[in-house]
Amino acid sequence: MSQTESSADQTGLDHIHRFVPATGSGLRPILALHGTGGDETDLLPLAEMLAPGAAVLSPRGKVSEGGMPRFFRRLSEGVFDEADVVAKVHALADFVEAARKTYDIEAPIALGFSNGANIAAAIMLLRPEVLAGGLLLRAMVPLQEKQETERAESLAGKPVLIASGAMDPIVPVDDPTRLAERFRACGADVTHEILPGGHGLGQSDLGLAKAFMEAHARIG
């Protein structure tokens, strides 16, 4: 898998990231967003497994929590710094739009795990035009107050899959359901599946995610 590894200095883009050019045609690119402690390499194998041949844009979160990269700050486990969430959403959304021009790619489908799923969810609520859909693995409600604007109506018809774990010790039990309801209120085509297991991913997640990408990753 050919990859371009870039820093802000090398490209003018403001996130360290990996870009994997497409090897197939007619596929939407994937925006791969890692969990806490991951980096821009973490989800590349998963993206390739779920959407073989698709281009992959994979940025590294710019926040460090005890040396672990994240996409936004949190005040404690499960309690987010919402002002920072909003600021980081706009910074990451601007990066994605700049990267689309640099790499000449279509609007991507987000593939996010944990913290990456949360920032993807927040982008869809605050900057819905940036993404073509979202595959959100172990997502929480990223913003407790409804801060999205009328632009969230542009989620109409966009596919969203939320996959949560029945015994997840990190994600509050009602959060994924509330997130799904919020997306539906914005017109998104939402599927929420509660799977066996905890915060880590299992075979059920992979099968569900693969089916989602097969259904929605093709352009047109």
Summarize the structure.
This protein has 220 residues and is of the alpha/beta class. The chain has six helices and twelve strands.
What does this protein structure show overall?
The structure is a single chain. By secondary structure, this protein is of the alpha/beta class. Helix content is 32%, strand content 23%. The protein has one domain (4-216): Alpha/Beta hydrolase fold, catalytic domain (Rossmann fold). The protein is built from 6 helices and 12 strands. The chain has an 8-stranded mixed β-sheet with strand order 1-2-4-3-9-10-11-12, sandwiched between helices. The protein has a two-stranded antiparallel ribbon with strand order 5-6. It has a two-stranded antiparallel ribbon with strand order 7-8. Helix 5 (175-185) links the parallel strand 11 (159-165) and strand 12 (189-195). The longest helix is centred in the middle third of the chain and has 22 residues, at 82-103. It is globular. The mean pLDDT is 91.
